[in-house]
Amino acid sequence: KSEVISIAIQKGGSGKTTTAINLAAYLRNQGKKVLLVDLDPQANLTQSAGLQEEVEPNIYHVFKRLAAGQDAPVDFSLFRSNDMDIIPSSLDLAMSEMELVSIFGREKLLQQHLREARKKYDFIIIDCPPAMGMLTINALTASDSVIIPLQAEFLPLKGMRNFMKSMETVRKNLNPKLKVLGFLLTKFDQRKIMNQRVASQLSRQYGDKVFKTRIRTNIALAQAQEKGVDIFSFSRRSNGAEDYSNFGEEVLNRLR
Amino acid sequence: KSEVISIAIQKGGSGKTTTAINLAAYLRNQGKKVLLVDLDPQANLTQSAGLQEEVEPNIYHVFKRLAAGQDAPVDFSLFRSNDMDIIPSSLDLAMSEMELVSIFGREKLLQQHLREARKKYDFIIIDCPPAMGMLTINALTASDSVIIPLQAEFLPLKGMRNFMKSMETVRKNLNPKLKVLGFLLTKFDQRKIMNQRVASQLSRQYGDKVFKTRIRTNIALAQAQEKGVDIFSFSRRSNGAEDYSNFGEEVLNRLR
Ligand SMILES: Nc1ncnc2c1ncn2[C@@H]1O[C@H](COP(=O)(O)OP(=O)(O)OP(=O)(O)O)[C@@H](O)[C@H]1O
Ligand SMILES: Nc1ncnc2c1ncn2[C@@H]1O[C@H](COP(=O)(O)OP(=O)(O)OP(=O)(O)O)[C@@H](O)[C@H]1O
Ligand SMILES: [Mg+2]
Ligand SMILES: [Mg+2]
Question: Ligand 4 centre from B127 Cα, in Å?
C-alpha cells in the first residue's frame, strides 16, 4: 500500500521543493521505493534533482493526453535521478491551469495518472506550486496526506489559515480521506524571537500536528540544489541532513 | 504623468510584497502620491498595510464588474492605510484565474481600471502573486515598468530566466512599452558565498540593470509587516529602512 503525500502551501518560498527532494531521499535511504512528482511550472524540483527544466515528455504532456481522453501510463514521462524516479515539470505546465478549466473531471487527472503508480511505489511525493489553483487541487485530490512547510513568520502564518480553509473544501468535495500529516517549520533560527513566538503560536493552535523537528537555516540545502543532488548525497554531516533525517523519521512514525 | 510599476517574479518568497510596501512608503515620504494594488490572492500586501484580508469590495470585485462589462471607477475598492491609497485583495481573487479565461480582453482589465488612476497618482505599485498566470499578465499589461526582486540563490536565478522569457511574450503581444526597471537582490548576506557568487553572475549578465542597493536580511522588515506598517514608520534607523531608502532613491534616478 503506497502513501501519496503532497507538499503544499500557497505562501512562496516556504521550503516546499527543498522538503520534497530531501524527504524523498531520506525515504530512499531507508530502502523505500519513491516517486517524485513536480507539479510546479517553475520546475524547481526537476532542477533540484539535476534534470534540465525543459525535459520532455513531462507532467504537462501527461495532463494533455489525459484531458484528450488518451492513455498515459506511469512510465510515459518517467525519468531517473539521484536513485529516484521523477515525473518532471516544465514552464508549459503554466498553460494547464487555463487548458484544464473546461475539461470534465479536471480535478482528478493526477489521481487517475497515479492509480497505477500506487502499486509500484511505497511513497509518492508531490511538490506543489505556490498557489491554490488547479494544479494544487489536482495534487490534493490525488493525495492521502499533506505536509505543510512554513517559515515561522507573520505572513506565512496568516497564509496558512487560508490554505487550511481551501484544503477543507477539497476534502469535502473531492477527497474525503485527505489528512494533514503535519506542519513543518523551515529556515528556523532559534535566536529570532519572531521564530520562537510563531512556533509557540502554531503549537498552541495545532498541538501534535506540528512536527517536533524544525529545519534550521542551512546554506548547504541551497548548495545541494545547485549541484542537483539531495542533502544526504551532498553533505551527510550538515545541519540540513540531520534535520531532514529527523524529520523523515517523524514522518515514518506518523504513518505506522 | 504617472509611472505604473509591477513588482513581479514567479519564484515564491522573493520579497515582492516587502518591496512593494516599502518602495511605496519611500515615495510617499518624498511627497509623491502613491497607489498600491494587491494582485495576489494571498492578500499579503493588504495584510502588510494593516488591513483585514477579507475587506470588501476589493480587486476581485473590480475584475468581476469589468468582466461583466460594468463600470468600476478607481474609488470603487479604494482604502487608505499608512497614508497611502490601496486597492486590497482577498482569497476570492484565486477564482479570477478561472473566471477570466473566456472573457474577451481578459488581459487588459487592470489596464482599463487604472486608466483613470494614472491621472491622480504619481506612482502606482502592483504586488504580483508567485505565478505567471492571468493575474501577473494583467499587471504586466497595465505597467510601464517591472522591478524583479530575487534572492541571490540557485533556484531564484534559474527561475528568473524563465520569467524574462514570459515577460518578452507580454511585451510582444500585449504591452510594447513594458521595460525592466531593474533586478533587486533581497535577503542579501554579504558573508554567504552563494549570495556573492550569484550577485556577480547577475551583474555580468544584466550589467546596470541590477540595482546597486542590496536589501540585507533584516528581521525588522518582517516585524513591520506584523504591525501592518511600513519599515520607515516601524524603525527608521533599521538596515531595512536604510536599504529601502537607498533603493527608492535609485528608482527615482532611473525614472528621471
Ligand atoms: N532550511 C533552509 N535553509 C536555507 N535555505 C533554505 C532552506 N530551505 C529552503 N532554502 C532555500 O530557500 C529558497 C526557497 O526554498 P524552496 O524553493 O524550497 O521553497 P518553495 O516553497 O518550494 O518555493 P516556491 O514557493 O517558489 O515553490 C531556496 O533558494 C532554497 O534553497
Ligand atoms: N530583507 C529581508 N530580510 C528579512 N526578511 C525578509 C526580507 N524581505 C522579506 N522578508 C520576509 O521574507 C518572507 C517573504 O517575503 P515576501 O512575502 O515579501 O516575498 P514575496 O515574494 O512577496 O512572497 P510570495 O511569493 O509568497 O508573494 C516574509 O515573511 C518577509 O517578511
Ligand atoms: Mg517550490
Ligand atoms: Mg507576496
Answer: 7
Partner residue opposite B13 with nearest CB, options A14, A101, A132: A14
Q: What's the gap between Cα A207 and its chain centre?
A: 22
Q: Which long-range contacts (CB under 8 A, 24 or more apart) does B67-72 make?
A: B67/B99, B67/B100, B67/B103, B67/B106, B67/B109, B72/B113
List, in sequence order, every residue forming a beta bridge with A80; answer none if it has no partner. A85
Which residue bears the cell 521595460? Answer: B179
CA dihedral A45, A51, A52, A57 (to 10 degrees): -90
Q: Which residues of A touch B132 (CB under 8 A)?
A: 41, 94
Average pLDDT, chain B: 96
C-beta atoms surrounding B32 within 10 Å: 16
pLDDT of residue A173: 96
Determine the Cα angle at A91 with ends A45 and B114, to 5°: 120
Cis peptide before A88 (omega within 30 of 0): no
Mean pLDDT of the region B170-196: 97
User: Which of A10, A14, A17, A153 is the best mutation target for the ligand 2 pocket, counting ligand atoms within 8 Å of the beta carbon and taking the most?
Assistant: A153
The Cα-based distances of A48 to A222, B70, B155 in angstroms read 9, 46, 8
- Averaged pLDDT score across all residues of chain A: 96
A182: phi then psi, degrees, rounded to nearest 5: 160, 170
> Which of chain A's residues have a Cβ under 8 Å away from the Cβ of B10?
41-42
Residue A247 backbone zone (phi > 0: left; psi -120 to 50: alpha; other: beta): alpha
- Chain B nearest-CA distance from A31, in A, is 29
Sign of the Cα torsion A222, A226, A229, A234 reads negative
Confidence label for B206 from pLDDT (cuts 50, 70 and 90)? very high
Calpha distance A226→B194 (Å, rounded): 10
Q: Band of the pLDDT at A161, cuts 50, 70, 90?
A: confident
Name which of A16, A154, A165, A223 to mutate to probe chain B: the one with the most chain B Cβ atoms within 10 A of its Cβ.
A154
